């Protein structure tokens, strides 16, 4: 039997909405309230979809603009349990102490590895062969609380941030409802994180997606795949324009050249020299919101980026 009567969801983005739906349909008997951070300036925003779903289900939804608003709502609503997915501010101890069954979050890494921001992006950039996601209890430390459950997927040289997120989403939708029921029934076994194994990653901005051609082609390939849609895409600057990479390949032959130099042009693509005698073939790029063949933008082999 559930020991909870009230539950609160705090989060955003497509992933967050799917997570919320999976636990909401498992526990519609609870009195729910939904909090969404104001994120309309983020291309990944799903605020309208949250609003439409909550309207359809007759659920209370509040758009919050600060941690203080979240704290005041928790004081007012008095939830027994909170689950978080897609909220990126640290919640204070005074809030955590208000929630009897705890505040729980989904973090897309195999904790204690990759605590912090943009964890899945960093895992792909770093070439991890195994990616993962953790359901854990919030504490005052960064992503440091006890772990309730983890899921794992394999990563290869075709994995993008979109395909990895989708695989993780599907696994959570399959596995989370039972874990949520166990939590509500007080039937969970938790794993304490080993601090000696902890690693951390910094938040990323769109500007962090600028390509450095003085890296190897394999690194740049991972860098591009880690920031593909729905993220803003990896890019380089050419003649004052931000050129985003839409389609690319690793050039398989060894190339001697200066990193950033256009080595070869084809009808649609161009080949750019990278570090250690490697190269990247750019096929499709986006400039000023328009997708073009790379050869339409980089029109001569005299170009150096």
Automatic annotation (TrEMBL):
Domain (Formyl transferase N-terminal) ranges: 69-176
Protein name, per record: Methionyl-tRNA formyltransferase
Gene3D superfamilies named among the record's database cross-references: 3.40.50.12230
Start and end residues of each Formyl transferase C-terminal domain: 205-289
SUPFAM superfamilies, per the entry: FMT C-terminal domain-like (SSF50486), Formyltransferase (SSF53328)
Alphabetical list of InterPro entries matching this protein: Formyl_trans_C (IPR005793), Formyl_transf_N (IPR002376), Formyl_transf_N_sf (IPR036477), Formyl_transferase-like_C_sf (IPR011034)
Recorded GO MF terms: methionyl-tRNA formyltransferase activity
């Amino acid at each position: 039997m559930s020991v909870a009567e009230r539950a609160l969801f705090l989060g955003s983005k497509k992933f967050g909405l799917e997570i919320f739906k999976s636990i909401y349909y498992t526990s519609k008997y609870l009195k729910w309230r939904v909090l969404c951070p104001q994120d309309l300036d983020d291309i990944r925003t799903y605020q309208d979809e949250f609003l439409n779903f909550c309207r359809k289900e007759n659920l209370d939804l509040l758009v919050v603009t600060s941690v203080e608003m979240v704290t005041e709502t928790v004081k007012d609503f008095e939830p027994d349990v909170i689950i978080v997915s897609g909220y990126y501010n640290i919640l204070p101890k005074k809030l955590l102490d208000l929630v009897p069954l705890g505040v729980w979050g989904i973090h897309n890494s195999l904790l204690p590895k990759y605590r912090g921001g943009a964890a899945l992006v960093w895992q792909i950039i770093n070439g991890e062969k195994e990616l993962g996601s953790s359901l854990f209890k919030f504490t005052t430390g960064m992503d440091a609380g006890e772990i309730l459950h983890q899921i794992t997927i394999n990563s290869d040289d075709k994995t993008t941030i979109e395909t990895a997120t989708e695989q993780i989403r599907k696994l959570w939708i399959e596995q989370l409802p039972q874990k949520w029921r166990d939590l509500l029934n007080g039937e969970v076994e938790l794993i304490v994180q080993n601090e000696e194994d902890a690693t951390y990653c910094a938040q990323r901005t769109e500007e962090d997606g600028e390509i450095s051609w003085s890296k190897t082609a394999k690194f740049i390939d991972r860098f591009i795949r880690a920031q593909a849609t729905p993220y803003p895409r990896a890019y380089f600057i050419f003649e004052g324009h931000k050129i985003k990479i839409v389609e690319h390949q690793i050039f398989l032959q060894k190339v001697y050249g200066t990193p950033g130099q256009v080595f070869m042009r084809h009808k649609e693509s161009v080949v750019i020299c990278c570090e250690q005698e490697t190269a990247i073939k750019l096929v499709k790029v986006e400039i000023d919101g328009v997708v073009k063949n790379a050869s339409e933008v980089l029109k001569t082999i005299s170009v150096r980026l």
